[in-house]
Amino acid sequence: MKIDILSLFPDMFDGPLGDSILGKAKDKGLLDINITNFRDFSTNKHGNVDDYPFGGGAGMLLQAQPIFDALAHTQEEAAKECISKGRVILLDPAGKKFDQKEAEKLSKEDHLTFICGHYEGYDERIKTLVTDEYSLGDFVLTGGELPAMVMIDATARLLSDVLGNDESAPGDSFSSGLLEYPQYTRPADFRGMTVPDVLTSGNHQKIEEWREKEALRKTYLRRPDLIDYSQLTALQKKLLAEVKIEEE
């Protein structure tokens, strides 16, 4: 997957996108991440990329020209590699809320471009370039860099071979529609806190049933809004009924 990032602060991405799992994915050639400072495309002699809004108001707005030209440049470079324009993503508090399902959709793309804003907002005409607008939630950050990092991490880890175990991602919280069941590792007894007996029993059918039930329990207690009863299997409905009785 090719990822382009348009940002005024490219150094912010050095550590988060160069270390750990994403760094290894880049080394393997699974990810090609390029960061472009769109200030480099300013036609202003001082390198300004913002200006006052027409009609007055607080703060400054990002101008259209530097971002238009920066995006045209990155897309020309992608075309040289026979890579499609892909999806152009604007990080904006007014955008659609980003979640696991959206990450799964984006992970199927060959090329993603993230436009990271700053200041008070954007010239509205920038949005004519955009295919998707996303927000991480109902709060405002100082810029789009942190949301872009979060989205790239959530999306890239779903690519084949990035995690090293393709069975890891489907079992994550939200991927199955439920929160993930509790997990334990050695020792079996740590300071008097013991691992549930079923997990050391060797009975894989019982283990899977326990995991299913505990995933339902965690979701029921913490995020009941995620449970779509109509989508549950007969076994899940039975286990959920047991959970409700046990938690009364």
TrEMBL record:
GO MF terms, alphabetically ordered: tRNA (guanine(37)-N1)-methyltransferase activity
Record's keyword annotation contains Transcription: no
Keywords tagged on the record: Cytoplasm, Methyltransferase, S-adenosyl-L-methionine, Transferase, tRNA processing
Keyword Ribonucleoprotein belongs to the record: no
Catalytic activity: guanosine(37) in tRNA + S-adenosyl-L-methionine = N(1)-methylguanosine(37) in tRNA + S-adenosyl-L-homocysteine + H(+)
A single GO BP: methylation
Stretches assigned to the tRNA methyltransferase TRMD/TRM10-type domain: 1-227
UniProt-annotated binding residues for S-adenosyl-L-methionine: G117, L136, G137, D138, F139, V140, L141
Gene3D superfamilies given in the database record: 3.40.1280.10, tRNA(m1g37)methyltransferase, domain 2
Complexes and interactors: Homodimer.
Alphabetized NCBIfam families for the sequence: PRK00026.1, trmD
Family named by the database record: Belongs to the RNA methyltransferase TrmD family.
The protein's name in its UniProt record: tRNA (guanine-N(1)-)-methyltransferase
